Amino acid sequence: MARPKGMSARAKLTLSYVGLLIIAGLLLMAVVWVFLLRYVPEHAVNIPVPVPGGEGGEPNSEPPPELFIPGRDDLWEAFWPKALLAMAGLLAFGLVGGWLLAGRMLSPLARITDATRKASAGSLSHRVNLAGRGDEFRELADAFDAMLARIEAQVGEQRRFAANASHELRTPLAITQSLLDVARKDPDRDVEQLLERLHAVNARAIALTEALLTLSRAEQRPLLGEEVDLSLIAEEAVETLLALAEKRGVTVEVLGNAAPAVGSRALLLQLATNLLHNAIVHNLPEGGSVQVTTSADAGSAKLRVENTGEPINPQDIAMLTEPFQRGTGRIRADQAGVGLGLAIARSITQAHDGTLTLAPRPEGGLSVIARLPLPQ
After folding, report:
1. Coil, strand or helix: which one is 38?
2. Which of 172, 195, 199, 200 has the alpha carbon at shortest distance from 183?
3. Are residues 320 and 206 in the same domain?
4. Exposure winner among 1, 79, 248, 326, fewest CB in 10 A?
């Protein structure tokens, strides 16, 4: 927003310092003047000073000396020129000292302003990094640096997401185009086989698009929150995916007590479903198991999903919640997925002011814990 040029903060602080200094000087002089008036007569007087003479001595022919006591008018005439000089000195000292002091005090603000301009120009890697003991300016600088770091991380994540999403969406379109080109050039094409392949590719594109829409909705904070029980949510998710678990030979066990939380029931059901689906799909080829546990303690409701599977490198854990990131060795040929299940789960958890923690199990597989705040 365009603003008319005004007085700088440094000039305002300088004038404030000068004003306070002048007022303090005037008050001091006023106090001195009032106290002097109490002991000064209204008019000047001369008081003779007696001179003691010796016994039998000659009387002194000179007039006795007199003590001059100035009056208030005399004192005022002697006082006000010195007072003006003192006030002029205070004014000069206040202007110079106030200007230097204000510049020193506002120098951190100038660095923060410079960093803000660089950030608005696109340089998110710049930091203020104010040294010294903590004060209001350094707290502001630290908060600004933390904000820049978070924005830089989010921008980088969005750029990676856009690139990965473009790549993932381009893949089914490229496959469709190749199938159509081959079918056009082949007069003896198998129409049924072509339609089946196109149907599979189109179904994957639809699933990917729906997952992207779900991720977009999950990143928005739910406007209306209702109290839900995560244990009931977990049981509903198990019932929904029980057929998939039986098909893959995975046993699912549900344990735990009531775990109340506040939020969108639809999104929390999506959270439980995604975690359970991920645990079923990325499991052992035979004899796998999944354990779903709910509990409420330490001020949070917890949904824990643990599954058996191949050992996971701890360095790969942080990548599993990134969009389109699939852990090496965790992909089955019959169910690769779109790589958004855990990313959606993380976004839903964050939208409910919760946290999602992933940890590899020592015997293989993954343990995922979603913590949500308890109702107030």
Report:
1. coil
2. 195
3. no
4. 1
The domain that holds 344 is classified in CATH as 3.30.565.10
Supply the pLDDT for residue 331.
43
Beta strands 289-297 and 251-256 are: parallel
**pLDDT at residue 218 in the model:** 65
User: 345 and 277: one domain?
Assistant: yes
pLDDT of residue 302: 93
User: How many domains is the chain built from?
Assistant: 2
Distance, in Å, from the CA atom of 318 to the CA atom of 340, rounded to the nearest integer, reads 14
Q: Residue 62: what pLDDT? A: 65
Q: How far is residue 212 from each of residues 96, 208, 251, 311, 356, measured CA to CA in Å?
A: 62, 6, 30, 29, 19
Sign of CA dihedral 310, 311, 316, 317: positive
106 in any annotated domain: no
Sites in the chain below the pLDDT cut of 70: 1-3, 37-38, 51-64, 161, 164-165, 167-168, 171, 211, 215-224, 324-339
What's the confidence (pLDDT) of residue 330? 42
Which residue type does 290 have? V
Tens of pLDDT, residue by residue over 229-239, are: 999 999 999 99
User: What is d(CA 316, CA 335) in angstroms, rounded to the nearest whole number?
Assistant: 20
Query: What is the H or E stretch that residue 289 is in?
Result: strand 289-297
Rounded distance, CA 16 to CA 98, Å? 8
Residue 357, amino acid? T
Among 218, 241, 272, the domain-final residue is 218
CA distance 342 to 293: 18
- Give the 3-state secondary structure of residue 16: helix
One domain for residues 240 and 257 = yes
Asked whether residue 45 is assigned to any structural domain, the reply reads no
Q: What are phi and psi of 77, to 5 degrees?
A: -65, -30
Q: For the chain, how many residues are written?
A: 376
Domain extent, residue 263, equals 226-373
